[in-house]
Structure formats: structure tokens, C-alpha cells
Amino acid sequence: GLKSDGTVVAVGNNEDSQCTNIKNINNAKHISASYFAVFGTTTRGELKCSGNDAEVMLTDNGTLKNIKLTAAARDVFIALKEDGTIYAENLSDSAKADYSENNEIIKEISNWTNILDVSALYHNIIALKNDGTVVYGGCNWDGEKNFDVSDWKLF
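Given the sequence above, the corresponding C-alpha cells read:
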């Protein structure tokens, strides 16, 4: 959870120390969690993370600045930047080698623009665009892509 002073508390699966190593996530304005990692966006738009070697996997190559909020699917990290673009990263070493679904999801959502909000669950990502329309990306294991969101308009 996110406390009013910007500190983070976590309970649950701690297999990769994602709950105990949250000390570096401070001055947070938004948090999200995947199965193996916790992510925080600071009041200065910086990314902080803990668990699953996320600190190593999310290499800061200059793209992880001006972060509005984060979302996390099982092995995919998503950052919504202040300019409405998406940055996505595969968090699974094994997935980078032979788990192509994550890489396909990242390829699909990395081109999204004018995004206002984003949410993720397991291998599915849905986002609200500035014009009120909705976009969806992810796997189709259980027919998730069989519904059409192109006519969804939320405002």
C-alpha cells in the first residue's frame, strides 16, 4: 500500500524480496505490483522498484523519466509517461529467451500514444486514451481478444 507520506508497505509473496526491499521506494505518488516486483513512481516522475532483479532489468537508458504511473502484468512492466506514451519492459529472463507472448505484448503496446491511464492483469493491458476511447493489448489464451473495444467511449 501507499501511505500518505509517500512510503510503501507490502505483504504477500516475498520470493524475490519484493516486499522486504521496498525501502528505496519513497516519495511515491503511485505504486503497482507484479507477481515478483513492486514499482513506485515518485513525485518527481522517477521510477523506483524492488524484487525480481527489477532494478537490473529496468535499465535506465533515459526513457524512464517523467513517469506518470506504472502498471504491471505478470512478467511485463508498463510505465505511462507524462507525454501519454508507453514504455514497456519484459521482466522475465526466461521470457526474453523463449516466452514470446511477453515480447509480442510489448511490441503491441509500445506504439500507443495519447494514453491517459493504463491497467494490467496477468498478460492483458487496457488503456484509456485522452479522447475517451479504450485500447487493449495482450494474450488471447482464453478468448480475451475476441471482444471489440473499438467502440468503447468512456467520456
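DSSP finds three helices and nine strands in the chain. Try to locate this feature in the C-alpha cell string yourself.
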